[in-house]
Predict the 3D structure of the following.
Amino acid sequence: MKENAQRILANPKFQELVQKRSAFAWTLSVAMLVIYFGFILLVAFGKGFLGTPIGSGVTTWGIPVGLFTIISAFILTGIYVRRANGEFDELNRQIMEEAK
Amino acid sequence: MRSLINRVGAVAAAAGALIPASVYAAAVEGQVQKQSTNYEAIVMFLIFVVLTLGITFWAARRTKSAKDFYAAGGGITGFQNGLAIAGDYMSAASFLGIAGLVYTSGFDGLIFSVGWLVGWPIILFLVAERLRNLGKYTFADVASYRFQQTPIRTLAACGSLATVTFYLIAQMVGAGKLIQLLFGLDYVVAVVIVGVLMIAYVTFGGMLATTWVQIIKAVLLLSGASFMAFAVLYKFGFSPEALFARATELHPKKLEIMAPGALITDPISAISLGMALMFGTAGLPHILMRFFTVSDAKEARKSVFYATGFIGYFYILTFIIGFGAIVLILAPDANGAYPFLDAAKLAAAGGKAAPGMIIGGTNMAAIHTANAVGGNLFYGFISAVAFATILAVVAGLTLAGASAVSHDLYASVIAKGRASEHDEIRVSKITTVIIGIVSIFLGIAFENQNVAFMVGLAFVIAASANFPILLMSMFWGKMTTRGALLGGWLGLLSSVTMLVLGPTVWKDVLGNPAPIFPYANPGLFSITLSFIGIWFFSITDNSQTAQDERKAYEAQYIRSQTGLGAEGASAH
């Protein structure tokens, strides 16, 4: 196990995997935080905007903004899982193979 | 203690003003009237019980090793686990509480739903796969990976048990009251039924039974809620605009229900609440345990994807159901009567309908809506699903509590890793029985108390103690036992202290005129304190053990990234 670990650490593909995956994960995390805290700050400071009706109806901008926040959470997880279970796992498989 | 409990009871009425706390809990607030026996609901609930006990019997025969007991043998698929996670999350609290909040305040309900959901992507991006690669049965496995076992496991077990206990009390009291209302059963009978069934599921069927009970309930709840939302939209030709227009006509707050209201007033409260909801989710022991039931990191990721989808969909449904409640409950029927409003209150207000007049309290909004769209049979179905929901959630909580005692305290701290698997499972089963009996007594003891704040407490503790040590242990190589220990305790104690001194407990529960700590949600402060504590007490630690712990990070790091040496699924 210890030798495997050393071989993994020395493998440039491992550095590539870690770098790419971390950068991707943090980017998506920041995107989620910006969307969420953007929504919360709108609630705290932009009540007027969220309470403005769209067109002549009673549906306000708050409804699509809230829905967008919910749906974006789902889409961001989908984007991450797609790349992590495909590209990153393939890279990981190669690393594990080469460490044997 | 006695006088404390009396005082708690005396001000339970004040809970109405505490929207955030009441949304946390399943609770039907204050005293409730026992209703006439609801046979449809009881029959449907009995079908659920028979089915789940059958599953428990099947699971018991397949549960032999510790891995089977704690982690369902690691053989749950990503999709199944996604449903189970969603099931743990879609408690009666979120279903009845959020629908009730939308019914009284409209848009504000959406703010909560969003806060509860956005923790999931963060868990996926930063926590899920490392957790799966490093852990075995409990999150303490990960938090203590390269540290001294005794102090860190003790801390993690205390954090877990505190979270589980407060959550359980709220669920038990909520269960008793809800069942009194829905089934017409005695409070004590209801609490005993919940306690006995959860003991049966967990002791005999372990994680496998607990997971399947949760999956079945999630499917029932999602189907029932889908039907309700569909029926509400159908009445308005599938035009949300028409639904909102009618709701704003009927609701006394008129157009205000379409905009953010009084729920969040200042940015500190808003951010603090958001942090507690988000990071609390990532620190709930019964949720974290679910990541060990799948075979590898790939399935763990998939489970979060499915869970986020189900939970998001469910929150959209509850929003529609809440508006459905407004248009169905606050509008007179063909005879000009309001069947779901309290006649005396309605008469006192001169026949002008208001949300607060609803029979059984605002948390009953979704249940009455079920009756209005689907008649008695569907009302019975939704009531049975609400009961099943509580049952499934308490089973998951009990298993998490029992694992903290048997796997962390008994096997690692007391027996120093020398306990046999057989002994460990036995301790776990005994603990389950004890937790079950204790929670029956606590449920009875707290019958007339306001327990809504306890779920808030559970979330804040999870966010301030469990989450920081878990996250830092995985991400920060310079962390040491001392840092984890002091930072973790700092988060645990500061969150409890600030919550007790804050408006929810100090003012509303204990009846003091003004709170000592101004914010209802201490998350922002206690989470920050915990992280600072971990950082400061780690970097100033230059002992030999600290050096060794830092060196051990490399191996942990490789395993967390690649899954080298990670727990697999068991052979059968």
User: Anything to note?
Assistant: The mean pLDDT of chain A is 91. The two ends of chain A are 9 Å apart (CA to CA).
